[in-house]
Design brief:
It catalyses: 4-(phosphooxy)-L-threonine + NAD(+) = 3-amino-2-oxopropyl phosphate + CO2 + NADH. This protein is an alpha/beta fold. Helix content is 38%, strand content 18%. The protein has two domains: 4-144 and 286-326, 3-Layer(aba) Sandwich (Isopropylmalate Dehydrogenase); 148-272, 3-Layer(aba) Sandwich (Isopropylmalate Dehydrogenase). Strands 3-4-2-1-5-12-11-6-7-10-8-9 form a twelve-stranded mixed β-sheet, sandwiched between helices.
């Protein structure tokens, strides 16, 4: 049966709409349902001089592969007209509404996955909606207390114990319970979603030199090592904690199915240095498939034809693979 993938372009003033129009120039083996403002997409396509035909989404019609130059549209209207590159907090509610529609359709089983374009987290907060990221938003909507952010590029998967929180809160947020929940979700999804029989997970320390035996921080001794030992007793294959500054070398990477990092800017700069533009962000532990781009809104590139759609292709292709693997 043909799969149906929901796509949210994200911030209307950013490059999300451009990326959606770029990927619509080819045919797809799945139905692509874009949750967005039709006028936004048509205006941006005109600006980019790219052909685009929108067909209204009909949930009762069987899903059909998407033809080149077309998109299926689940309409959600902007609050105010959008000027590429210019943020307008009045459209914050529009952005979150597109996420809600896509999320609901995934929870109900109407869609087989959701692929998200970049949102501007600050703008959504300016609009009066507390929002730290799609990962946390979808977890909340799906009633999931624990999900895991993992980014992947050729030869490297990086998962995070904590996501969008200030650095000052990181140490307290890494409890034995959180670390164990994240590791179990990562291990389970590497097996079930990625077909790795016995995943080998390499784990970073929190402190420089993984704490240097307690001389540079005690979190490894008090939290990380006991948590990992208990997980090993459950049969999870873990190496570490290793110092984060030396873990990303071929000797370890060639053996690792994923590197578990403790906070956002411990793991993601390395991942993006290796594969910015061709990486995918995957939320593990949700009751549905969600993938995303590895970059942000790049406001200055909106409407210019200079946005690289590489990561967006990667996100859609990964979502299709994961949806097909579910059968
Ligand atoms: N998945 C999401 O929703 C994400 C959203 N963001 C949001 O994006 C906003 C801007 O964040 P920044 O840190 O400036 O990151 P950014 O990724 O938007 O831009 C960083 C640099 O990379 C370039 N760039 C980004 N994507 C590109 C593409 N596809 N093709 C060519 N060049 C590209 C930009 O022009 C800029 O020079 C923030 O509000 C942040 O919250 C950031 C990361 C992920
Ligand atoms: N740096 C990754 C990022 O910010 C993406 O977060 P999310 O919006 O996918 O939760």
């Amino acid at each position: 049966m043909t799969k149906r993938i929901a796509i949210t372009p994200g911030e209307p003033a950013g490059i999300g709409p451009d990326l959606v129009i770029a990927i619509a120039q080819q045919e797809w083996p799945v139905q692509i349902v874009v949750v967005a403002s039709p006028s936004l997409l048509m205006e941006r396509a005109k600006q980019l001089c790219l052909p685009l035909t929108l067909t209204k989404y009909d949930p009762s019609a069987p899903a059909k592969p998407q033809l080149a130059g077309t998109l299926t549209i689940l309409a959600s209207e902007l609050n105010v007209p959008c000027i590429p590159g210019q943020l307008n907090p009045e459209n914050g509610h529009y952005v979150v509404e597109t996420l809600r529609l896509a999320c609901d359709g995934n929870i109900s089983g109407e869609f087989d996955a959701v692929v998200t374009g970049p949102v501007h987290k600050g703008l959504i907060n300016q609009a009066g909606i507390a929002f730290s990221g799609h990962t946390e938003y979808f977890a909340h909507q799906a009633n999931c207390s624990d999900v895991v952010m993992m980014l992947a590029t050729e030869g490297l998967r990086v998962a995070l114990v904590t996501t969008h929180i200030p650095l000052a809160y990181v140490s307290k947020a890494i409890t034995r319970e959180r670390l164990q929940k994240v590791t179990r979700i990562l291990n389970k999804d590497l097996i079930e979603k990625f077909g790795i029989k016995t995943p080998q997970i390499y784990v970073c320390g929190i402190n420089p030199h993984a704490g240097e035996d307690g001389h540079l921080g005690r979190e490894e001794i008090e939290v990380v090592i006991p948590a990992l030992d208990e997980l090993r007793a459950e049969g999870i294959n873990l190496i570490g904690p290793l110092p984060a500054d030396t873990i990303f070398q071929e000797k370890y990477l060639s053996q690792a199915d994923a590197i578990l990092t403790m906070f956002h800017d411990q793991g993601l700069p390395v991942l993006k240095y290796k594969g910015f533009g061709s990486s995918v962000n995957i939320t593990l532990g949700l009751p549905f498939i969600r993938t995303s781009v590895d970059h942000g809104t790049a406001l200055e590139l909106a409407g210019t034809m200079n946005a690289d759609p590489g990561s967006f292709y990667q996100a859609i292709n990964t979502a299709i693979d994961l949806a097909n693997n579910q059968n």
